[in-house]
Write a structure and sequence with these properties.
4 copies of one chain form a homotetramer. By secondary structure, chain A is mainly alpha-helical. Chain A has a domain of about 120 residues: Cytochrome P450-Terp, domain 2 (Cytochrome p450-Terp, domain 2). In chain A, strands 2-3-4 form a 3-stranded antiparallel β-sheet. The N and C termini of chain A lie far apart (about 60 Å). Chains in contact: A-B, A-C, A-D, B-C, B-D, C-D. At the B-C interface, α4, α5 and α12 of B face α4, α5 and α12 of C. β1 of chain A pairs parallel with β5 of chain C.
Chain lengths: ~260, ~260, ~260, ~260
């Protein structure tokens, strides 16, 4: 047990003279030569992306960075209200709500699609086959009373504006892979089975694109979190100068109906 | 109090048809056109960076992304051991240690330098003046028994390899601003005052560069956190397939000397 | 939408003159009269426990407070290493690993048992019926390849010392309810079905006891977290004076085998 | 470096047969015999409290458990909205705002008082001496433009109802020690120096009482967090059945004034 063979890592190492990330020298090979998103890609896929992959990956991150005053953003800003000296705590609080309801769909969609097309080569993944697979999978999910992930959005009821744009970029980059194409077929199949079409949502399209870029489905949520940190920093920068946390607290206290009869 | 005037934000907004970030349309203006780091810059500085600023900003983020099996990385991997289904929790745990000891120096250095050169124009900030200011500030800090931030590193005792590289990139980009130049002068002044030179550390140089890029000092830590999330995702990707959390726990339990005499 | 009817709570309220929790005055009705665990009970069950319930509830919390240098404790101590000024961050990090692997079993067991006996009156829950129900449930879980929660422990392979003690206390308090009794029957049934008996673990017994005390199963994890905070404070108190975080980091760095051939 | 002497702890240990906390057997010595708050006390002070200490300690925890829909509670409930499957994340989010603004005053007050009376024996701490010390300390703080911690409250402008009650209980328990007495003198001194009396706040009185109970000042915040977890569990129990997170999000989105002219 006390052998060291388990203390093993291929991510980073720091010695007195050099810092290495994924086998590359941070100073000589990475800084000034590789963009930050390309490094993030490298850290998971274990190779650098080519230019087209980099473009699609950036587009995915950009699409997920911010979505207004979401519950996560409010949690971060309210945390900053109490502990402005610990920015890391406010950002952590803003990430902790990225669960099954909010950013989870990115991962759920990646996983759902991956379970269907895993092992399928690019050439085998014909439109015809994907359509059949989509229909089968949707029927099965609907039959079992399970949600089909990646479809529908409480705000973007007709079209989520990020989705057609992401498909266009993937197409321009020649990266419209089996996951993105299957997701499109799933949306069609869902309309067919249910009789009412739901739009693909941005989280779902992002999950499909990340899977097409070679990311393991259960890490798709990680990139959604990375993107979200940029948005959170923006909101906390704003909270410093135009705070809303304290006003929100005061208004809630004032409006609150206290549910214990006899007490006011 | 119940007026809405305080519910005000210039970061993001989502309506049924469009998503806006900092006044730009996510689908039409940002996705596929603006890189993710440029969006992160926009969210705080409220304008897009030019190409040189973008290059320096990426280099800073790359320099901070990973530093091996740090306490933060270990905390994230150990958290994943217990809750692999909540990636957001493991990443949050990995951020929470980014305080005064570890990533705080990025902010401390930015703040220390900013307090000295704030309000100084580029043209006023001559080498001569910065040298004088550095000497005064170092003497004051040392006299008061305060640490001078940005200097010294437990691992990189002679040179932190990220630092000369970051200065080179800043110089190539014509972005060697008053903060980076002052930090250099501070290292010289420290050697003069104490009689032993300490190298500038990577966190400090990053903080100075972020300040030269126009970031408020108290948000410098935020970008260190953003960078660190990429490294954490890499480590968690590795933890999924080559876990070390459970082996570490077992070894600690086995080696632990229990401090209550009479109990074993 | 802007009506206030949704801003409704029965937990706490603070006005200029008084603070109320669950309809009781904090100063007049609670402080000095109600113990802290009784208040925690009140906050969820919405009535104060009687003396026997209080004794069992305290025993459950005591049983879950600490289990040595667990991954959660290590995560908290390593977080403190980087951010000693933010105790809340170290404690939060120590809670975030309380997921499916570590404290989740408390909840999983409570839920598993509750799904079986919900709606059963005390009088209907005869030993005979519980035995039959246990056998059916275990056969079903084993047949479907699912884990039976609440059984087995990596360290306490024969008996988890907390379990017989908790059953004794419950029995002394006349609170050996359907969940605790069913869990016992489940352990028997598992031995019968598999041919090898696994001991009931402390997390499982705690979950069963909390369910017998009237806690909703999906909040059982909450009380495990409450208990764990006490243990974490103890470890952080120790970390202040006998730190192990930095030494652990140094040893890991030194022992690490870097997995990228050609780089060392 | 690889010696094991640093892997040392006096908190908890688990072997196959027994679990020990602070040298006591969890099953035989603690469960059913020691209350949960007494165990929490033991974990930090390293001895069990006597009955009077236990009563005061419980009163402190009760006084800090809940204060209505605070920013911390809102952060926890909003986090639950996005990730209901990870209760630990919602509770962690609710703790992360316990910083300099909200629960920090407990620690700040304990530290402020402790810095003044540390080393003073019970007998030396005469009313007269404490009055003098208070006056000196307040004059110094006010002169240096520093806040005097423990005084004033945005809601309880005249009296914080927890404070007289806590002093009464401490007095009944014969535990009105130098910290609590000094805090009272500080409030008087502040009124004298400034000409306007501020009430002692609940966080400050709690910090003073914890210090009188022998807790190190920098762990006072830890007990405030422990108390707060009970309140958070109550709020999350309520959020499960009477959610307000999603309604709050919707209302904020609807009311938000977007600050970028030309975009709406």
């Amino acid at each position: 047990m006390r052998g060291s063979e388990w203390v093993r890592s291929g991510i980073g190492r720091a010695t007195a003279e050099r810092i290495t990330v994924c086998g590359l020298d941070v100073a000589d090979d990475l800084m000034g030569k590789v963009s930050f998103p390309d490094l993030a890609f490298l850290l998971v896929v274990r190779r650098l992306p080519d230019e087209r992959e980099s473009r699609l990956f950036n587009a995915v991150l950009v699409s997920l960075a911010d979505h207004g005053l979401t519950p996560s953003v409010l949690a971060a800003r309210l945390t900053y209200t109490g502990a402005p000296e610990s920015l890391q705590g406010a950002i952590a609080a803003g990430l902790l709500g990225a669960g099954s309801v909010f950013l989870g769909p990115t991962e759920d969609t990646a996983r759902f699609l991956h379970d269907i097309v895993a092992g399928l080569s690019e050439r085998e993944a014909t439109d015809h086959l994907l359509r059949d697979m989509a229909l089968t999978a949707v029927r099965e999910s609907v039959g079992a009373g399970r949600r089909v992930p990646g479809l529908g959005h409480p705000v973007h009821k007709v079209t989520d504006p990020r989705v057609p744009r992401l498909y266009d970029i993937a197409s321009e980059c020649d990266l419209l892979g089996p996951h993105l194409r299957l997701l499109d077929a799933v949306a069609d199949a869902y309309g067919e089975v249910i009789g009412r079409r739901l739009p693909i949502n941005g989280a779902g399209a992002a999950g499909a694109a990340l899977a097409d870029l070679g990311m393991p489905p259960d890490l798709a949520r990680g990139f959604a979190l990375l993107a979200r940190v940029a948005g959170l920093i923006g909101h906390l920068a704003e909270e410093r100068t135009s705070p809303l946390g304290m006003a929100l607290y005061r208004e809630m206290e004032e409006r609150m109906v206290y549910d214990h009869p006899g007490d006011e």
